[in-house]
Every structure is written in structure tokens, then in C-alpha cells.
């Protein structure tokens, strides 16, 4: 059974890179009819951020990535599901204590009593002499008796792993292939801290084993730690999972994505009105591609298509224009009714009274124009309330004030007497014919009408706007424009 996990530390919001890691882990599990689980790695107590766990889980709900096991939201409440729990590391301390005993007994781990001062001094020396930094093994060979007496005397200690000093450790990574590490260069990693909490390295191995994780999918930054993990598996006599280390996400300036250079949290994109299906489609392509020129994939299609042999080693570039393009395409494909629903919370946030207009028609004005739901809401605000605009804007570049006024008045008269349905098609055919009959240019009529109805130079087409505003409001706004001139 394929079992993958995403193991966030609740130290902030879900990062885009985190979502990609989780997505790939999820897709791989789904492809093989396996399970995807979430485990919370909260052993670094100082970095915990309140509400972060709820936020992370909310992002999964938003992205429609369902969690089979572990920590998840049930009716918006954080819960744990599955028989291999608890799935929150701070609730597993006894388990780590039990397993560290095994390594101590086998002499694969040892107590280290070195003080912070000694370690700082050691590091300084190593740096000054340009030696590799790392623990020098000072406590590696203390006798049982020495250890017992120090412990009895109440000396503070950590527990370190006894890394073999010879040989190499090989990782056969699903993305990177074989990667070799010289054991002598690998530190005697702390496994249990002085406060009794495990370090990430110890907890991750114990948990991935006990939770029967078959494939560890994580960021490239963990690759250098993996030989330590593999050695821990060996010490325990456990079979190690497969590993897939994903490349870094970078921006177009080839910098690592970071807050300083723009939005990096999934919630930032939620707030801006990206559609989850477009966002997930875009994220899937950050490192993976189907091997042909298809660009649109639903989550279900990705579940079938995804595989690590199509994931690249090179850093993946996060290109906001590409994301905008995806989002716009998905917005265009959506029915106006569905789009109106998706925009609902954005209208609410802006306190717009949407009761007077057909919202589906309103948002339809921006289909093909706007990139995001937020843009749709912002760009259609003139429908609900017309802002002040300068009367000179009404005058088309090839016209003057007098002609503009006369044309607006004529148009009002024409529209007042217009028979047939007040919709875009009817408006288009009749007005365009009428303009010709009057021997006017389109700009003479449509430009002042655009400004009168929207207060903007750049807006959806005036006849489209008129159809959404309805006859009364359209004529009102045009009359207001006449009065302005
Ligand atoms: N807690 C680690 C993180 O925050 C998980 C790394 C892993 O997946 O092993 O990235």
C-alpha cells in the first residue's frame, strides 16, 4: 500500500512550496490507490505560531486536497483520524522515549553532556582552522559508569546518534537518482534535546516507520539530512521508505521564493481571488509536466497522470503571469452563475449591495478581462455606484463638447423609444444600425456612452454595461452626463 504524508510544522501559513510538496504526495498516493496523511511536526516549541495549524488545514480544504488520515478538519474542527496516531508529534513523546532507549542499548546513540560554552568554543576553533564544523565526538566514548554518574549528579544531557565514521550512505532518490554521502562528514546528530523533546530527525524516522509511510516526498532542503535518517533506519533494522526530494521554487530573478519578494502563502492567493482549481493546476506544473503540450488538468486528471519520472530536477520558476493566465482561462470557462457564486464573499467583503442587479450578468462583464475574482469585484464596482468623473472625459478625441452633448441627447431619445428586449444583442444590432443611419461614427455615440455609464475610460463595452444596468439606470446615467456638460 502506498502511503505518503505531508508533515508541516505549525510555524506559519502554508507556503506555496508546501502546497506543491503536499500536492505531489497526494497525487502519488491517489494514483496508486494509496493513502495521503498529514502529520504535525511541532517539536520545535519555540517556533510555534498560534492558529497556524487551522490555517494550514483550511488551505487544504480550499485546494480540495482531501486528507485520508492524520490531522484534518471535520466540520471545521481540528481532529485526528486513523489507527496509527496520535499524528501530532508533541503527543508522541513517550513513543520517542521508548525508541531512543533501543538505540542507547544498542550503543547506536549516546548521552552528550557538552555545555553550550564548550560547543561554541569547539565551533569557533573549527572555523578558525577551516575545519568542517560538527560535533567532535567528545562524549562519544564515555563509559557506562561515567554516563551513569553524570546522570545521577543531575548533569544536563542530550542524546546523539553514533554515526558510523566510515563508508558511504547512498540515497536512491526518485527524482535525483543515486546521491552519495561520505559518512565521516555526517554529524552525530542530536536525537533527543535536553528538554526531552525529540529533534525533527529522530521523530521523522520513528513516525514515518510507525505510520508505514512508503514514500517520503519533501523539499530539496532535506536531502542533506536524509543520510542521517537512512542510518537511523539501519540502526533500528527497519526498511527505509523511498524518497523524492523536490527542487527549490524560485522567482524569475532566480531567487528563492520569500516574503520579501512577494506573496508566498497560499492564503495570500485565496484573498486575491485565485480559483483553487486554477491554482492547483498551476502548482502541479511547478516541476512536473505531462510530457506533451496539454496544460489543463483537473485534480482527478492529475491523480491519473502524475508520476515522479516526469518531475524535473531543476529549480521550478514561479511565474505570476502564468498563474494569472491560468486563472483567467478558468474564469472564462466558468458559467456566469458559478462565477457569481465564487465572487460572493469578495462582494460581501467590499460591502457592496448586490440586490439591485443580476450578479451573474455583472460578473459576466469581466469574463475574459479580469485575472482574479478580486479584480472582477473591483472592476465592476461602477455598476453598483458610479464614481465622480471629469466631464471632459465624455468628449471623444475626434469630437467636442457641443457635439458630445447633442449626440448623448439623441442617443437617449433613441434608447427611450427602443422596442424589443433590453439585452446586449438587441442593443447592439439596433444601435449600430441607427448610428449608421445617422451618419455618425461609432466613437461619437459609444465613447460618451461608455464614460456616462461607467465613469471610466477603460471598461467593458458600453452596450454590455447598458444591458446589465437596465433601461432606467442607463438612461439616468446618460442624463446625468448631459447635465454635466
Ligand atoms: N516538518 C518538516 C517541514 O516543515 C517536514 C520535512 C519532511 O517532510 O520530512 O518541512
TrEMBL record:
GO terms for biological process: glutamyl-tRNA aminoacylation. GO terms for molecular function: ATP binding; glutamate-tRNA ligase activity; tRNA binding; zinc ion binding. InterPro entries: aa-tRNA-synth_I_cd-bd, aa-tRNA-synth_I_codon-bd_sub2, aa-tRNA-synth_I_CS, aa_tRNA-synth_I_cd-bd_sf, Glu-tRNA-ligase_bac/mito, Glu/Gln-tRNA-synth, Glu/Gln-tRNA-synth_Ib_cat-dom, GluQ/Sye. Keywords: Aminoacyl-tRNA synthetase, ATP-binding, Coiled coil, Cytoplasm, Ligase, Nucleotide-binding, Protein biosynthesis. Signal peptide: none annotated. It comes from the Bacteria. SUPFAM superfamilies: An anticodon-binding domain of class I aminoacyl-tRNA synthetases (SSF48163), Nucleotidylyl transferase (SSF52374). CDD domains: GluRS_core. Residues 398-425 form a coiled coil. Pfam families: Anticodon_2 (PF19269), tRNA-synt_1c (PF00749). Its EC number is 6.1.1.17. It catalyses: tRNA(Glu) + L-glutamate + ATP = L-glutamyl-tRNA(Glu) + AMP + diphosphate. Residues 339-481 form the Aminoacyl-tRNA synthetase class I anticodon-binding domain. ATP binds at residue 259. Residues 2-325 form the Glutamyl/glutaminyl-tRNA synthetase class Ib catalytic domain. It is found in: Cytoplasm. A motif ('HIGH' region) lies at residues 8-18. A motif ('KMSKS' region) lies at residues 256-260. GO terms for cellular component: cytoplasm. Monomer. Belongs to the class-I aminoacyl-tRNA synthetase family. Glutamate--tRNA ligase type 1 subfamily. Catalyzes the attachment of glutamate to tRNA(Glu) in a two-step reaction: glutamate is first activated by ATP to form Glu-AMP and then transferred to the acceptor end of tRNA(Glu). PANTHER family: GLUTAMATE--TRNA LIGASE, GLUTAMATE--TRNA LIGASE, MITOCHONDRIAL-RELATED. This is Glutamate--tRNA ligase. It comes from Candidatus Magasanikbacteria bacterium CG_4_10_14_0_2_um_filter_33_14. The lineage of its organism: Bacteria, Candidatus Magasanikiibacteriota. The gene is gltX.
Amino acid at each position: 500500500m502506498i502511503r505518503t504524508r505531508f508533515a508541516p510544522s505549525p510555524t506559519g501559513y502554508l507556503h506555496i512550496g508546501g502546497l506543491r510538496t503536499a500536492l505531489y504526495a497526494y497525487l502519488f498516493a491517489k494514483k496508486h490507490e494509496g493513502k495521503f496523511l498529514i502529520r504535525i511536526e511541532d517539536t520545535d516549541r519555540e517556533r510555534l505560531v498560534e492558529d497556524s495549524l487551522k490555517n494550514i488545514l483550511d488551505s487544504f480544504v480550499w485546494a480540495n486536497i482531501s486528507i485520508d488520515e492524520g490531522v484534518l478538519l471535520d466540520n471545521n474542527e481540528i481532529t485526528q483520524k486513523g489507527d496509527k496516531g496520535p499524528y501530532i508529534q508533541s503527543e508522541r513523546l513517550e513513543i520517542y522515549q521508548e525508541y531512543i532507549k533501543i538505540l542507547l542499548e544498542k550503543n547506536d546513540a549516546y548521552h552528550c553532556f557538552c555545555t553550550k560554552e564548550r560547543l561554541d568554543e569547539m565551533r569557533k576553533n573549527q572555523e578558525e582552522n577551516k575545519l568542517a564544523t560538527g560535533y567532535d565526538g567528545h562524549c562519544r566514548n564515555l563509559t557506562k559508569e561515567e554516563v551513569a554518574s553524570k546522570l545521577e549528579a543531575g548533569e544536563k544531557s542530550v542524546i546523539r546518534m553514533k554515526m558510523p565514521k566510515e563508508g558511504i550512505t547512498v540515497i536512491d532518490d526518485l527524482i535525483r537518482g543515486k546521491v552519495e554521502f561520505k559518512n565521516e562528514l555526517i554529524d552525530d546528530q542530536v536525537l533527543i534535546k535536553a528538554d526531552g523533546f525529540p529533534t525533527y530527525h529522530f521523530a521523522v524516522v520513528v513516525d514515518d516507520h510507525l505510520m508505514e509511510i512508503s514514500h517520503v516526498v519533501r523539499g530539496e532542503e532535506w536531502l542533506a539530512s536524509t543520510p542521517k535518517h537512512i542510518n537511523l533506519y539501519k540502526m533500528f533494522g527497519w526498511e527505509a521508505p523511498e524518497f523524492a526530494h523536490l527542487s527549490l521554487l524560485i522567482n524569475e530573478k532566480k531567487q528563492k521564493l520569500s516574503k520579501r519578494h512577494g506573496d508566498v502563502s497560499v492564503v495570500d492567493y485565496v484573498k486575491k481571488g485565485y480559483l483553487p482549481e486554477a491554482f492547483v493546476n498551476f502548482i502541479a506544473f511547478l516541476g512536473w509536466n505531462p510530457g506533451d503540450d496539454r496544460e489543463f488538468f483537473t485534480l482527478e486528471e492529475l491523480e491519473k497522470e502524475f508520476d515522479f519520472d516526469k518531475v524535473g530536477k531543476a529549480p521550478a520558476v514561479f511565474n505570476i503571469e502564468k498563474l494569472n493566465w491560468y486563472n483567467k482561462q478558468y474564469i472564462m470557462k466558468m458559467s456566469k452563475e458559478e462565477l457569481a457564486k465564487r465572487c460572493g464573499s469578495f462582494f460581501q467583503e467590499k460591502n457592496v449591495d448586490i440586490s439591485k442587479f443580476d450578479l451573474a450578468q455583472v460578473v459576466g462583464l469581466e469574463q475574459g478581462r479580469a485575472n482574479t475574482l478580486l479584480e472582477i469585484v473591483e472592476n465592476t464596482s461602477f455598476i453598483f455606484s458610479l464614481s465622480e468623473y471629469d466631464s471632459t472625459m465624455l468628449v471623444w478625441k475626434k469630437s467636442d463638447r457641443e457635439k458630445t452633448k447633442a449626440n448623448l441627447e439623441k442617443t437617449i431619445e433613441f434608447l427611450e423609444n427602443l422596442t424589443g428586449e433590453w439585452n446586449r444583442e438587441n442593443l447592439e444590432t439596433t444601435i449600430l444600425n441607427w448610428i449608421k443611419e445617422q451618419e455618425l461614427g461609432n466613437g461619437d455615440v459609444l465613447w460618451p456612452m461608455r464614460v456616462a455609464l461607467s465613469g471610466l475610460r477603460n471598461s467593458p463595452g458600453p452596450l454590455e454595461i447598458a444591458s446589465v444596468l437596465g433601461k432606467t439606470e442607463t438612461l439616468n446615467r446618460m442624463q446625468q452626463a448631459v447635465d454635466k456638460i
